[in-house]
Amino acid sequence: MPPRSSKQETKGGWRAIALSLLVHAAIVGAAVMGWFVYKHEPPPPTTLAIEATVVDERALKGVQPIPEPTPPPAQPEPVPEPEPEPEPTPPEEQGPPKPDPAEVERRLEEERLAAEKVEQEERVQLELKQREEAEKLEDQKQAAARAAAQKVAVEKAAAEKRAAERKRVEDAVAAKKAADEKARRAIEAELRRSMEAEERGNALRTSDEASRWHAAIVARIQRAWIKPPSAQPGISCTVSVQQVPGGEVTSVRVDSCTGGDAALRESVEAAVLRASPLPAPPDPRLFERNLILIFEPK
User: Fold this and answer.
1) Which are the contacts of 248, defined by CB distance < 8 A and separation ≥ 6?
2) How far apart are CA 237 and CA 231, in angstroms?
3) Is 88 a domain residue?
4) Which of 52, 146, 160, 284 yields a CA-CA distance of 20 to 30 A from 5?
5) How many helices (H) and strands (E) are present in the chain, helices listed first?
6) Pairwise CA distance, residues 14 & 12, whole Å
7) CB-side exposure of 70: number of CA atoms within 13 Å?
8) In a 10 Å sphere around its CB, with 0-12 CB exposed, 13-18 middle and 19+ buried, how is residue 259 labelled?
9) Peptide bond preceding 65: is omega within 30 degrees of 0, i.e. cis?
10) pLDDT tens digit string along 87-131?
11) What is the pTM of this model?
12) Which of 27, 44, 61 delimits the end of a domain?
């Protein structure tokens, strides 16, 4: 009996060794697989669960022994693969550092000051724009006022010019009317004077003194007359004579003549010129510039 018990213990030892080798092989395989997966795609580490059944040695005693297999020929021991070097453990991720309250306050103050600066610049730009628009509007108002004033001035000047022209025309018309009236009155006065003088002259000419003056003029012309050979008896010539005060003859013309020809006319005109100056009237009021004489030589 003791030899059999030793044999069973030997078989139990082999089984324990085989089980131990199996467990180690599973651990090594799991490590190799984990290293391979970790190299290609680093997922979170996977925990391998190994299921094993613990065999009670007393239960093994009641089991019929398995005949020992023929031991295989000795195989050369495999060269163990080098174990992979362990990957460096990545540093633990640390959260963002907590901000410094003083730094936060400083940044907030800077942002506030920057915002105030921007707001102030915008306000300055707005005020500048509003001031420029106000100045532009004021310039437009002043330009419109100047244009309106200039228009009023131009219209006023035009109205004054029209009024001055109208007054000039009215004054010219009034002056012409006054001149015409003055001339008319002068003409009327002269006409009255002439008529009065003519009436007086007519009265004088019909007077004995006028008749004696005309007779004295004709007598002087007759004394200066040289009778032409063609003269015939019954000569009667109407002669127009112009004289100036003092009796100087300025012109003479024979208007009509009977009892003779052109030689008679020329002889009468020559006699009038030779008789110049003509006798003066006894009364200066009897003087006539234009005389119409009847020449009838005896």
Assistant:
1) 276, 277
2) 12
3) no
4) 52
5) 5, 3
6) 5
7) 2
8) middle
9) no
10) 666 666 666 777 788 889 999 999 999 999 999 999 999 999 999
11) 0.35
12) 61
